[in-house]
Recover the amino acids of this structure.
């Protein structure tokens, strides 16, 4: 995606974090260098946020926007989260707070993003986890020490339970209320790191948002559009298959942008339009159902004509 820096469009390369080999970063960057594309801004998931990767991406004037683990062991991330400062709203209900951390080798900017709606969801999910954990350990005080240890081992295989489970010095199982309170500090927040000095906090948040759009595109290709399985054997046919799928994805995004709604909602609304065949003594006629206000709105936004009301008149045979 592109953001603007001093009036000049800047290409932000989004890079999904589920890529298996981090060597791909160097391969792609080296390929871009062959095209004289060095000054690009990379948006990467937290799986690539090693110091070695960050420094490599800064070669030849490149920069990055990276997600950071809020609950990880990064001293820089912990320092960024501990800094005081005011949030300000940049888009919709997204609030951001910028801090700087100097690790002695490089001075990175950190942007703490907070979404109140996501915070509400995070709190609700945590309450459910704690309630289920409390239910699982309820009555465990009457168990033998070996049975409690066995139960604790089972619960710790679940990351959600393991975060909030503790054992007393006497071996009793309890919900760790201190960790529950500490976890609430992360509700609705995600942390971004960037090396670029000219982008605003809004640009940084928007640039990272492009990563979600790229990942959503891959999900839509694999599920909604069904890119796979591919049964072709010739390379030209495989390329044509993939290109047609990308064109389909483009049509989905154009429809979403024009209508201002998700493809799922657009599709579900249009699928309510039916064609009914009516059979009488005079013959048969196919008639579509009345358009709903939602269907009219979609067709009007896409500048598409309403489909004909009647189809295929077939008079009865004498």
């Amino acid at each position: 995606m592109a953001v603007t820096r001093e009036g000049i469009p800047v290409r932000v390369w989004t890079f999904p974090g589920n890529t298996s080999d981090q060597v791909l970063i160097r391969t792609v960057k080296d390929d871009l260098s062959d095209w004289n594309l060095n000054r690009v801004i990379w948006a990467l998931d937290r799986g690539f946020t090693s110091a070695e990767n960050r420094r490599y991406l800064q070669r030849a004037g490149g920069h990055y926007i990276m997600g950071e683990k809020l609950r990880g062991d990064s001293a820089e991330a912990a320092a960024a989260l501990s800094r005081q400062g005011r949030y300000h709203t940049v888009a919709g209900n997204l609030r951001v707070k910028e801090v700087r951390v100097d690790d002695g080798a490089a001075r990175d900017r950190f942007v703490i993003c907070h979404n109140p709606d996501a915070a509400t969801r995070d709190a609700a999910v945590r309450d459910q986890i704690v309630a289920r954990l409390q239910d699982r350990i309820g009555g465990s005080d009457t168990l033998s020490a070996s049975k409690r240890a066995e139960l604790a081992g089972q619960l710790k295989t679940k990351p959600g339970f393991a975060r909030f489970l503790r054992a007393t010095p006497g071996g009793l199982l309890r919900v760790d209320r201190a960790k529950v309170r500490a976890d609430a500090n992360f509700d609705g927040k995600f942390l971004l790191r960037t090396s670029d000095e000219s982008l605003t906090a809004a640009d940084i948040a928007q640039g990272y948002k492009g990563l979600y759009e790229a990942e959503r595109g891959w999900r839509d290709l694999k599920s909604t559009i069904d890119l796979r399985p591919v049964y072709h054997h010739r390379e030209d046919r495989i390329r044509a298959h993939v290109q047609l799928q990308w064109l389909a994805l483009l049509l989905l995004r154009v429809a979403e942008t024009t209508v201002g709604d998700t493809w799922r909602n657009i599709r579900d609304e249009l699928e309510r339009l039916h064609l009914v065949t009516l059979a009488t003594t005079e013959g048969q006629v196919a008639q579509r159902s009345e358009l709903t206000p939602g269907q009219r709105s979609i067709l009007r936004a896409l500048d598409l004509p309403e489909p004909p009301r009647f189809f295929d008149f077939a008079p009865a045979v004498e």
